[in-house]
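Hi support team,

I'm opening this ticket because the web form for multi-chain structure prediction keeps timing out on my end. I have pasted the exact lines I submitted so you can reproduce it. The total is 660 residues across two entries, so I didn't expect it to be a heavy job. Is there a limit I'm missing, or should I split the entries? Thanks in advance, R.K.
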Amino acid sequence: MPARNEPEEVSRLARAIGSGDRTVLSRAITLIESKRADHRRTAAALTQALLPATGKAVRVGITGAPGVGKSTTIDALGSMLTGQGHKVAVLAVDPSSRRTGGSILADKTRMAHLANDANAFIRPSPASGTLGGVAAKTRETMLLCEAAGHDVVLVETVGVGQSEIAVADMTDFFLLLMLPGAGDELQGLKKGVVELADMIAVNKADGDNIGRAKAAAAEYRAALHILAPRSPNWSPPVVTYSALTGVGIAELWAHILDHRKKLEASGELGARRGEQRVRWMWTMLEERLFAPLRSDRTLKAALPRLEAEVAAGRLAPAAAVQEIADMLGR
Amino acid sequence: MPARNEPEEVSRLARAIGSGDRTVLSRAITLIESKRADHRRTAAALTQALLPATGKAVRVGITGAPGVGKSTTIDALGSMLTGQGHKVAVLAVDPSSRRTGGSILADKTRMAHLANDANAFIRPSPASGTLGGVAAKTRETMLLCEAAGHDVVLVETVGVGQSEIAVADMTDFFLLLMLPGAGDELQGLKKGVVELADMIAVNKADGDNIGRAKAAAAEYRAALHILAPRSPNWSPPVVTYSALTGVGIAELWAHILDHRKKLEASGELGARRGEQRVRWMWTMLEERLFAPLRSDRTLKAALPRLEAEVAAGRLAPAAAVQEIADMLGR
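Hello R.K., no limit was hit. The queue was backed up. Here is the completed structure from your submission:
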């Protein structure tokens, strides 16, 4: 979408998105996901133009090991919400995502109800070389979705690298889904994920598993007690539910709203979002400053060798940095 | 120290440091801490020249809340080690450090024995604007100290920002010192510090406090059990000791050596150091790429305003980044 007169183009896009035009929303998201500098500039201007219309959604990050039932949970929760009159956007951060498919996050084929729901908008993870790049695009996409009228945004991720931290840093509430295993499942988790959680929800509390699910919940509760809560106004609850039967889904949302109410009352939600915005700025800036390393052909060729030499202890890190800086001309 | 013929200058410095010349070591560290580009280049070349002489030390990071007795502990431990024939370097990472004093870390006045010990080298934290900058200089300083013959390096930090993570990422063993309070002291700790620890040592296990210290140790042990250990080859022990009486100090070192033996045998130590070196490279590169933001006068003036506008929700992060990139000409 070449922008011959950018301010006009941006106004046009902003108006269409604000009126809920889903086609334009999708095109604008493609702008965000583009690598072209002119697209990037238009996307930034568009976000700025739509800024007053953003921020009103409940933003929930959802993570859990493969097989825990994230898609089924999002489908059940999302459908309950659209049934209540909400407009739900489902996004994803998956750094392993590739252009030609491969990411199973925010996958319509795994969310049978939402995929056919006019009040749900599902967008798979952007493909990108870095987590920082993927997260940045997802955040901008979230803002556009909010401006388009979505008042609930669910951002799905899976435990790859630092993706949970990135998703927790763009949402108001971070939900960790667990299977009804024993306490050692918690130990198997990546460091830091448990402490990010505003709630732990044990899925598959149905049929013969109900007892195991409740026992697991009790163990997770004990573990959470040891770790300091992130806010003085919120103690992360541990609950059980079943995405299959729907039991407990409404309670999940009730907890999310309770959290929101408490954090809005204390001013913490606003403060947290402000801090998130500033971190977004610095992260995007870092991506921008590092871009030449990924696009410059000489550097791209040299970097793996330099990294290997440093890893092997043959090249001092400081000396490697000097070489790279010289190649960059800085 | 202008380097008219840099390779000669570097060789001269390298030889002097390798022979244990403490005066030259101090001057070289000043090079490392300098902001000048020529000094930085010389420092990088010096580190490269000395690289084969580095890496042989036991590197221990030490943290704990103010008042826990870090200085007394380092003094007691360091003195025991020099008494055994070791050469001990004491460094510090304190991002709040200023040129005209102010940091109480690696402070000779608080380490009465080591300050007068010919086999101990104490260097306070470099002063710097950023944690990344301070950590980078401390790491390079550590390498020079190792090349100068120090076979034990203790890096002290206090819980400011991400400094513990930085210190854990430059050492082989991360020691967390605690007071003999109850389990809720652990909860009061910053997220992530507990999981970084390779050992928790409860100080002030002397006189009437012995019982409390042991009770606290038991609670910390229970907490550690919930959190997954960082290595399959090491379960972080929780011990009590007294920096005042010296009881338990020898055991601290025995645990550190035990850890080293196990991780060397499994190859984990070498792998960990290789990964650390690569992260050092990227962190230093990031510092380098961000430097124009800190030195360019227009940008330095604009950044606080941009950050405030983003925090307040009036300026979209993407738009702020576009402005900064335009100012940088990138």
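A quick check on our side: The CA atoms of residues 108 and 115 of chain B lie 5 Å apart. Let us know if the file doesn't open in your viewer.
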